[in-house]
Structure formats: structure tokens, C-alpha cells
Amino acid sequence: QQQVKQSPQSLIVQKGGISIINCAYENTAFDYFPWYQQFPGKGPALLIAIRPDVSEKKEGRFTISFNKSAKQFSLHIMDSQPGDSATYFCAATYTGFQKLVFGTGTRLLVSP
Amino acid sequence: GAGVSQTPSNKVTEKGKYVELRCDPISGHTALYWYRQSLGQGPEFLIYFQGTGAADDSGLPNDRFFAVRPEGSVSTLKIQRTERGDSAVYLCASRQGSTDTQYFGPGTRLTVL
Q1: Which residues on chain B are in Cβ contact (under 8 Å) with A45?
Q2: B57: closest chain A residue by CA
């Protein structure tokens, strides 16, 4: 019940295209959903996060869409660039739980 | 300001040896976490400190793993009698007060031969 399922495992997108990564969760207590970006040899870095009181959050080229009834959320990267090539992790937690539960990651490759 | 730092960046040891991994959190961050990331997987929670005390150690896989944070800042993850299955990247993260964001360090890559 604490799992977060992430898909796809890998993704290849052409430069300028839209990258879409999906996550699903079971625990309805989760109330904070961050996305992390990780480059090889580096630690994960927070990209964008959302709480379930809104259905969408946008920061620059990055958008989170959140569907509370379906218990799903997704990351959209608009105008994808080669520099976006990295592994992306969704995660979830709730107030009082503290620890992040991560998805299995999506390796994104943006071709020039 | 400086981010979360971890030392060493790489550690190679032999099966059965003892290792210590160090984490320096962002100054002023009261919450500190350890996660373990195996190849091709997402980070998995090990232990969480609030101040000096371990508030949640439910992720520690067995009693060979132990962590301390004696002064509420630097933390050390200690692994006794290392096994090949302990090989992974050990990540540390810190968080300020009542905020949500966990800031991760670059990790320590542990290889047990």
C-alpha cells in the first residue's frame, strides 16, 4: 500500500517534444507528491511538487497533473531539451509519515 | 549556501569489514534522512532523525546497520560485517523545520567485494 508505481521505465523524446511520465499510488493518506531529477553520479534534486488540493501545477517547462480520484499524477516536460536527459523519480509522503516513498524511476533521453 | 555533503564519495571495502559513512546536512536543517539506492532503483528510506534522536528507523534492513547524530547536525551511518548485498549508493537528505522539501547530497557509493 506504500508503493508508488512509475512508468515508463525509459523514454526517448526528440528535442522540442513533450515528455510524459506517470505515477500511481494506493495510500490515500499521501498528501505531498514531489518529482526529483537525478543526473548520473549526483543526488536527486527537487524539480516540482504538488499537494492534492490543486489539479495542476506549472513551473516553467515542467507541469504536474494530479488526479485525486484516480490516485495518479504525472510530469509533463514541454519543449524537451537534451539537457533534460536524466532519471526522473516521482515520490509521495504525508504529514507525520515524513519519509519519501519513491517510484522506480524513468530514464529520459532527449535526442538532439 | 552549501548543500548537503557526504563523505567519502566512494568506498570500497571487503566483505565482513566495518564502514562509516558521513553526512553534513544544510546548516540549520533539523531533519536528516538516510536512503539507499540500488542500481536502477529509486531511493529507499533507511532512517530519519529529528534533532539528535532517531524518530523512525523502520527502514534499517537489520541490526548490522546503525546511525547516529549526536549533536543534531552531522550524522554517521555505520555498517558492521558488510555483505556484498550492501553495495549501493547511500544518500543523505536534510529538511528545514516544517517545510516539505528534502535536499539530497551526492551520495556515497559503497562497493563490498
Answers
A1: 104
A2: A99
